[in-house]
Amino acid sequence: MGIVHDLKLGLRALRAAPLTTAAAVLVIALGMGVNAAVLAVTYGILIRPLPYPEPSRLVILSVATADGADFGVPLAEVDEWRRRLRTVESLAGYATSELRVQGAGEPRLVSAAHVTDGFFGVLGFGHDLRAGGAAVSERLGAKSGGLTIGASTCEIGAVLPRMFSFPSEKVDVWIPAVPQPPGSPDYRKLRIVARMKPGVSRAQLKEDAVRVLRELHGPEMAKPGSSYPTVTPFEDAVIGDARPVLGASMAGAVLVLFVTCGNVGMLLLGRAVLRRRDSAVRLALGAGRWRLARGPLVESLLLASAGSLLGLGLAVLAVRIFLRVAAGMVPRSHAIAIDAPVLAASAAMIFFVTLLCGAAPALDAARKDFTAAFRGGLAGEPRTRRILSLLVVGQIAASIVLLSSAVLLARTVERLLAEDLGIEPEGVLVAKLSKGDGTVADAVERKVFAREVLDRVRVLPGVTAAGLGSSLPPAGAPFQIYVRRITETRDEGMSLSVVSVTPGFLEALGARQASGRLFESAEDRFEPSAVLLSESAARLAAPGEDLAGRELPMRLPPVARFAGAPLVAGVVDDVKYLGLDKPAAAAVYLPWSARPTETAWLAVRTRGDPSTLAPAVRRILREIDPGLPVPEIRPLEDEMARSIADRRLRVVPALGFAAVALGVALTGIFALFSRAAAERRRELAIRIALGSSRSRILGLMLRSAGALTAAGLAAGLAGAVGVAAGLESLLFGVTPHDPPTFAAVLLFVAAACLLAAWLPARRASRVEPLELLRAE
C-alpha cells in the first residue's frame, strides 16, 4: 500500500515539473538507448556462443612466408596434412573466390567457398558435399534444384541457416574444391580448419605443424627467415579485429551512461534542495527518514523506467540501422538482436540508473538536521554545491575522453584518405567485371572480351585512357608470390603482388613511371615477352641498377608462360594494393595475354566528372555480354572510401557517444549555473545595490565556472591520455597522444562550458535590485 501511495506521489511530483521531467526522461533515453544498442552488438558478436560444437577445439592452420604474408597450403597437400598431423581429429581446407551464379534470379556475382572433403563435419554441421553438389545460404533465396555456379551446374544439396557464416559473412555458396590448372589464384592460399583432439593445446598443435611442414618441404622450413606454420583460434578468425573496437565502444557507452546518470542526479538533487523546507515540515510532524528518502528513489525509478522504455525503442531502431549500414562489414551480424539477454542486462541497468540518480537526493532527504531549512538560504549550502560541482567535473571529463577518442579515429580516416597510393585517383571511373566461371580454360575468350570492351570504351567522349587489370588499388587483394633472390653477396626475399594489365590500365590509374616504358598493344596481342616491375621489386632484382630494356635477372614462379626470359619494359612506383593502411606493395606486372583472369577491374580516365560516363559504360557491358553480372560503376575515389568503410563505421558511433555526452554535460552545466544564479539573486542584488558593477558580478560568476571547467579539463585530459593508448592499434597516421587533437578538444570543450555558464551569469548580472528586494 505504501509503495502504491509513493508511486502516486511521485507521478504527481513529476507532473508538477513537466520541463524537468521531460529533460530527465530524454537524457535517460539517450543514455540507455546507446548502452542497449552497443550491448546488443557486443553480446551478439563477442559473447553469444558460436553455433558450432566445442568451438574452443577449432583452429585455423596456415603457412606464412618469411615476411609474414599468409601463403596457405596447396590443395594437393591437404590430404597429406590430414594424414600426418597427430594432434587433430579432423581437418579440411577452404578458399574463397567470386563466382557468377545463375538460376536464382538475375545473374549475380557471389562470394563462394571452395571446400575439401569433411569441411562441414569438422565444424559439426554434418553436411558433406558430393561431386556436382553445392550448399547455399538461405540468404541466396534458392532452396532446391540446380544452379549454374561458375562454369559448372550444381545440384543444391543443403540450404544453410544464416547463422552459418564461415569462412566469412559474405559467403553464400559452398562447392567442392577441385584441382586447377597452374596459374589459377583460387587455391594457392588454402587455409585449413581443424578440430584438435581433446586435451591438445595450440602450442602442441603448432609444434606438430612444424614437423609436418619440414617433412613435406625439407628440414630448412620453419626456421628463421623461411616459411612457418600459423595457428589461429577459430573464434579470433571469425571475429577478426572487432574485439578491440567493441571494447572501446562499450567503454564509451558506459561513460555516456555515467554522464547521463550524473545529469539526472543533478536535476533530482536540485529539486530535493528546493523542497527541503517541505521535508523539514514533514519530519517535524513525525515522518520517518526512510519515508522521506523513498520519495526521491520512487521518482528516480519512474524516470528511469520511462526513459529506459523510450531508450529501448531508440536501441531497436539504432540496431536496425546499424545492421543495414554494416552489412558484410561486421562478423556474426545474424547474432545481433535486442533479445532476452540484452533485455535482462537493460533491466539491471534500470536498477543501476535508479540507484545512481536517486541516491544523492534520497540521502539529502534523510539527513539528520533540517532546522536550518526554516531559516532559508539553504539551497546553496557548501555540501550541496560540492556534490553538484563534482558531478559537473565528472561530466566534463567524460566528454573530453569520448570526444578526443572520436577525433583521433576521425583523423585516422582523414589520414587514410590522404595517403599516396602511388597513382592519381582523381577523374578515374572503375568497374569490377567478372565472367565468374572459375576456370582458366577460356583464356582466348577472355582476351576477346577484354579487347571488345576496351575498343568501345576508349572511343567514349572525354576518355583519355582505359584498360583492364586483375587488381585495383587500394584493396584489390592481388595474387601474391614469394620470390627469394640469392647471389654471392646477399640472400633476400619478399612477397610480390602479381597484376595482369592491358595497355592503358596503368595510364588510366595515373601510375608514375620511373624508367623505361609501359606496355604496348603488340605485347598484349602476341606472345608476351615483357614485364613491368615496381621500384621495390626492381631493387630486389638488381639494387641500384636500371633494369629497363634488360632481361629480368631473377626467376619468377610459373605464374605465366613466357617465350624465354622476359625483358623488363619499365619500372613504375610502388602502388598500395593491400590497403590504405599498408605499405605500398612490391609488384610485377604481366601483360594481360600472359595471364587473363576471370575477374578484372576496368579503369577509365576522363577529362571531367567520371560519374557521368557510368551509364554509357554499363550499356556497353550489357550489350557485349547480357549474362555478365551488372557491376557497380563508381569513381576510384569512392572505391578508396569504401575500402576503409569499416574504419569509417567506427567513427560514427564514437562521434555519437561524444556528441551525446557533451550535449548532456553542457545541459547539466547550464542547469547548475542557472540554479546557482537563481539561488544567489538576493546576494547579487545587494552587491549591485552597494555599488558593485555588473561586469564584476559577471566575472564573479564566471570565475566559479572557470574553476570547475579547469578541474574537468584536467581530469578529462588524464583520462583521455590513458584511453588513447588503448586505441593505438586502431589509429593510422596519428599518434595516440597527438598534441593538436588534445589541444583542439580541450579548447572546444572549454569554450562550450564557459558559454553554457555565461548565459545564466549574464542574466543574473542584469538583475534589478529594487524590484527583487521589493518582491521579497
Give me some keywords for this one.
single chain; 776 residues; alpha+beta; six-stranded mixed beta sheet
Describe what is shown at a glance.
The chain has 776 residues and is of the alpha+beta class.
Word description of this protein:
The protein has 776 residues and is α+β, with helices and mostly antiparallel strands. The chain has 22 helices and 19 strands. Helix 1 (2-16) packs across helix 9 (289-325) and helix 18 (645-679) packs parallel to helix 21 (739-765). Mean pLDDT is 80; it is low at 376-380.
Topology (SSEs and partners):
Layout: H1 2-16, H2 18-47, E1 58-64, H3 78-84, E2 88-102, E3 108-115, H4 119-123, E4 133-137, E5 146-149, E6 152-160, E7 171-176, E8 191-196, H5 202-217, E9 228-233, H6 234-239, H7 242-274, H8 276-284, H9 289-325, H10 340-365, H11 382-417, E10 428-434, H12 443-457, E11 463-469, E12 479-486, E13 491-501, H13 505-509, E14 513-516, H14 521-525, E15 530-534, H15 535-541, E16 567-572, E17 587-591, E18 599-606, H16 614-624, E19 633-635, H17 636-643, H18 645-679, H19 681-689, H20 694-726, H21 739-765, H22 769-775
Parallel strand pairs: 3-7, 4-6, 13-17, 15-16
Antiparallel strand pairs: 1-8, 1-9, 2-3, 2-5, 2-8, 4-7, 5-6, 10-18, 10-19, 11-18, 12-13, 14-16, 15-17
